[in-house]
Amino acid sequence: MANYSRRDFLKTAAIAGTAVTGLSSKTKAAPKNILSEDRMGVLVDTTVCIGCRKCEWACKTAHNLETPSIDTYDNRSVFNKMRRPNDKALTVVNEYHNNDQDKFPINVKVQCMHCDHPACVSACIVGAFSKQENGSVIWDTDKCIGCRYCMVACPFQVPAFEFSKALKPDIKKCDFCFERTKEGKLPACTEICPVEAITYGRREDLVKAAHQKIKNYPNRYINRVYGEYEVGGTSWIYLANKEFEKLDFPKLGKDPAPGVSEAIQHGIFAYFVPPVALYALLGGVMWINKNKKKTENETEI
Amino acid sequence: MEEFKPTPMKKKYFTPVVIGLAVLVLNGMIFLLARFVFGIGAVTNLDNQHPWGIWIGLDVAAGVALAAGGFTTAALGHIMHKDQYHAIIRPALLTAALGYTFVAVSVMIDLGRPYFIWHPLIMWNGSSVLFEVGICVIIYLAVLYIEFLPIVCERFIGRVNLPGMLKRFNNPLEKLLRLLDKGLEKTMFIFIIAGVVLSCLHQSSLGTLMVIAGPKMHPLWQTPILPLLFLLSAISVGFPMVIFESVITSRSFGLKPETHILSNLGSMVAPLLGIYLAFKIGDMMIRGTFVYLTTISSASVMFTIELLFGVIIPLRMFMSRQIAKSPTGLLIASFLVIFGVFLNRLNNFLVAYTPPYEFYSYFPSIGEISVTVGFIALEVLLFRIAVMIFPIVSVPDMSPQRTKYSVRGGIR
């Protein structure tokens, strides 16, 4: 199957071709009908993670971001406050208090969730974001104009912008190591993880595996896989022993994030019928009023 | 009835107010320069939690809404063919053209990569609301300039007089203007209708823009009928904006305000505002969001101010006959409507926006405020220049027998 870039081309061509007759309903960015069944994902088991933050180091190294030496990541004082991914760190690990066992805190790795129906893809004014066949949501620097609408749209508040740059600021977010996986390598974070808290694989298999884990260890996990249904499903899914909302996961519905917005948009522009109808209506009103004026003037004379 | 004719204003350009405004412009430009040298982060209080600030929420969103006078008067004067309102079409057109120009400029300075502003023209994303808004605004801006061309023709046909080296272009330019004037006279209706359609589209889509933010937006404002509310509020702010600008212009140039036209215009505001209010309250009732008004928070306070001072009070004022007859009453009532829509856009884009992970709350920096204020001041200054160069403001006509161009000796 062709990947999205070819699809994008066809999409643009289709729009250009049908610009007069109307927008094709197939131009939806949320790829409901073309999600690959073999798309990959990652299962994060927060009960296994030890908060060593090696993944943070590996991520920065893989993406040529500035990083201190790997030894400095042992410093656990960074956990004192909640951190978010930003333009200098595409993934971060946070630590949360564990009710039952104080000795074993809960660590949660945060990065782009790689939604199946991404709001950023739907929102981007120039289509710089795309959901790839392998599941990753990536960003194209050659298209981006820096409007930051993706940041407004993202329900997980993930895309970050290089506010400090005057020239060529980038949108920074986890790209699921798109360049590495293309060469058959593992994503940098999953490769380095010493305790296998993060597992890379087919999303479908991972969802099954997650439920199997819950079934096998019902005391270890709560009965929920975060990301299985949230905003229509995400490529990254999580297991935990505590309600996800208490671990700072956003409380989200099951509908795809762009949902209503696209429905409204495609409603207003349904094959360009409403705008054209409005144009015709106004034209008619204008014509009638003009003629009325004329006859009024004639009768006056 | 007295004949009114658009005439260039003759008055000294510089007044103390004008100089004050020029200082504000200069101040804004300094911060703007800093933005381009040191980046957006250096001048604004924007961060990864708050991607959009007042440059989008006010300059763009409120700017588009407050330029609605252009399409509402065009619809009234040209499409409904109410000839009595012709006197206000030109000032409204100028306000809209200037307003939209600054909307485009504001978008440009807010973009991280302003040099790629042309990308949406060739890189399309049909599902993006922002894409639709962008394309509509670009086309509408072009339409506004086209609608303005006849005024330029009227001013310069028979008077093209370039200095020095450029003298040889006098004749071709004159011919071009005549050609444009003749061509546009026949085809203007196409652009006028297109302008109204485009306005309806992007005024509403500006509301759809925030729908995708979903739960990040406070429920008092987040509703699937946002596009309808934006369209209705834009339509109801159109005439108040024209009234406001007309009263201010006549005061500034020492003319008698066209009270008769303005109060007729004002009589149409109450029904429009009423429809908007009905939808706003109805939406609140259906979604049950009034529960949020029972607690005191910045959201509930701002919502109450917006609805009470921006919609309900001016609605009552426009229903009063006494107020409709006095320019001052109209001025105040109109100002309140403008304030209401301004606040509504601010609320929708900034106050309602609550990111799930918020470390600091957003308040615009001195730099952001300076640039916004500078742009508004510059708009006022350009408006003043334009009405002094072009026949925009209507004054009682001293020579009613004069026909088009005849005095200037041109051949038609």
Task: Provide a descriptive summary of the structure in words.
The complex is a heterodimer of chains A (301) and B (412). Chain A is α+β, with helices and mostly antiparallel strands. In chain A, 32% of the residues lie in helices and 12% in strands. Chain A has nine helices and nine strands. Chain A has helices at residues 4-17, 54-62, 119-123, 149-153, 178-182, 188-192, 203-216, 259-268, 273-300, and strands spanning 40-45, 92-96, 106-110, 129-131, 137-139, 160-161, 171-172, 198-202, 236-239. The longest helix of chain A has 28 residues, at 273-300. Chain A is elongated. With 412 residues, chain B is mostly helical. Chain B has a single domain (45-355), classed as Formate dehydrogenase/DMSO reductase fold, CATH 1.20.1630. Chain B has 15 helices and two strands. In chain B, strands 1-2 form a two-stranded antiparallel sheet. At the A-B interface, helix 1, helix 3, helix 4, strand 6 and helix 8 of A face helix 1, helix 2, helix 4, helix 7 and helix 8 of B.
Strand order of the largest sheet of chain B: 1-2
Taken together, the total number of domains of chain B comes to: 1
Strand content of chain B: under 5%
Oligomer classification: heterodimer
Number of strands of chain A: 9
Question: CATH class of the largest domain in chain A, please?
Answer: Alpha Beta
Count of helix runs of chain A: 9
Tags for this model:
heterodimer, A: about 300 residues, three-stranded mixed β-sheet, 9 strands, B: Formate dehydrogenase/DMSO reductase fold, two-stranded antiparallel sheet, 15 helices, disordered C terminus
In short:
The complex is a heterodimer of chains A (301) and B (412). Helix content of chain A is 32%, strand content 12%.
Secondary structure topology:
The complex is a heterodimer of chains A (301) and B (412).
Chain A: H1 4-17, E1 40-45, H2 54-62, E2 92-96, E3 106-110, H3 119-123, E4 129-131, E5 137-139, H4 149-153, E6 160-161, E7 171-172, H5 178-182, H6 188-192, E8 198-202, H7 203-216, E9 236-239, H8 259-268, H9 273-300
Parallel strand pairs in A: 1-9
Antiparallel strand pairs in A: 1-8, 2-3, 4-5, 6-7
Chain B: E1 4-6, H1 16-38, H2 40-43, H3 54-66, H4 69-79, H5 86-110, H6 119-122, H7 129-156, H8 170-208, H9 226-252, H10 259-267, H11 269-287, H12 298-319, H13 321-325, H14 327-351, H15 366-389, E2 394-396
Helix pairs in contact in B: 1-15, 3-5, 3-14, 3-15, 4-5, 4-8, 4-9, 5-7, 5-9, 5-15, 7-8, 8-9, 9-11, 9-14, 11-12, 12-14
